[in-house]
Structures are given as structure tokens and as C-alpha cells.
Amino acid sequence: MHESYDALLVLSFGGPEGMADVRPFLENVVRGRGVPPERLDAVEEHYRHFGGVSPLNARNRELVAAIGERVELPVYFGNRNWHPMVEDTVAEMARDGVRRALVFATSAYGGYSACRQYLEDVARARGAAGPDAPDLVKLRHFYDHPYFVAANADAVRAARATLRPRSGTGRGSCSPRTPCRPRRTPPRAYPTRAGTATRARWRRRPGWWQPTWALTPTTWCGSRGRGRRRCRGWSRTSSTTSTRCTGRASGRSWSRRSGSCPTT
Question: Using CA atoms in the order 147, 150, 155, 157, what is the torsion angle rounded to 10 degrees?
Fold first, then answer.
């Protein structure tokens, strides 16, 4: 790896670190989407309960420091929506003479916001850095990696142990675009990957789940078919539906049972 790549970029979502950061951060998140100001007002009020501080940047700095202790490559940190912005980080990498780097996006799952949009951010950052911008190669998703699954399972057990008797464990999601409310049609990519990750953790018989965990640099599928097109580069890495994509889209139709495109 060290012969081909001379740096690693940790790329994340970003978050405010004080009340003065909250509004510009939210405007970055929803730019170009036509979200009404009153919706941003409501989300901004939520941040007041925590002093306007998101824990994400601090956790990412801890991650960068931990990675730096384990690899020989220089590790850079950039965000999509707040400082350090990925455009500034890629420009710094260019000034440091980095020519080819791996990109670790902290989003484990597939989907537009979790995968395709990060690729767009990388492309925008490289364009802003100019002709000296390094080549950036995104690593595979890690939603079904054993360590990631085990860490989440341990966290769920620890949280469940604190619940009162007869209490349930819930899940939910919301965004600055719309208030939290039940969806009529759930997103397609996340449940597929969550189910795969669950099966990876709770094996039913020996040999049932035998994925290949090599972190092979892969350019993920950029098809905008949203589930209607399959990539010619897909290949199975286990006896179930774990697949990878080299980004070469074809016009062949495919069954959702045979795999799931990272951009669906």
C-alpha cells in the first residue's frame, strides 16, 4: 500500500462546535435544497440543548490520532459541511506534495448521502485544488465489517442493560430538511445493509458468512439508476449478497436479491 499511496484522508460530515457555528453549518448541510428558514430555526433550537456543540469533530480527531499511531502514512482530516472543510484539506495535501491518497469516509452505509455525495465532495475539492490536486481513492463501505458490527452490538447491549423492565429499544432518524416522522417507504440501502450486518454478527451455522475483509480501494458505482442498473464490475465476496463494484455501469437489469448497489 505504501508504494502506491502516500497519505490517508479521513472524510466526515462535520458538525458545529459552538452556537455561533450552528446556523452556517446547517446552511452548508442544506445548500441547494430549498429548505425553508423556519425549518432551520427549529433544528437550531435543538442544538441549544447541547450548547451548539456536536461531538462528531472531537470523535473524528480522536480517530485520526488513533489511526496515526497505527499506520506509517500521514493522516489528514476533512469535512463535508464544517471546518476543517475538505477543500482546504485537499489543498493542504497538494501543498505537501501528496500525489495519491486513500479516502476513508466515516459513513458506513450506502446511499446517496452516505456514498455518492462524498464522491462529489472529493471531486469538488480536487477541482478547487487545481492541477496539483492528488488522486483520491475511496475505500469500501464498512457496514458489515466484523469489528464495526461487534462494536455496535456491544453498545446496544450496554444501552439495553440501562433500560427499565418492559422498556423497548427504538430507532429513529431525522434531518434538517424535514421534521422527524414515520416514512411510508423506508430507504432501500440502509435496511439491506443493516440486515446484512446483523446476519454477519449472529451466525446460524459455521461457514454461513465468510466475507472477504480486504480493504481493497474501490471506486463505487456512480449510477443514477437508483436500483435499476447494475455495475459490470460487481462480484460476490461471500455466499450471501456481499458484493463490490468497480464503478463500470452496464444496462443489464438485475434482481435486488442478487446484490444491492451502494448508491441505491
Answer: -170
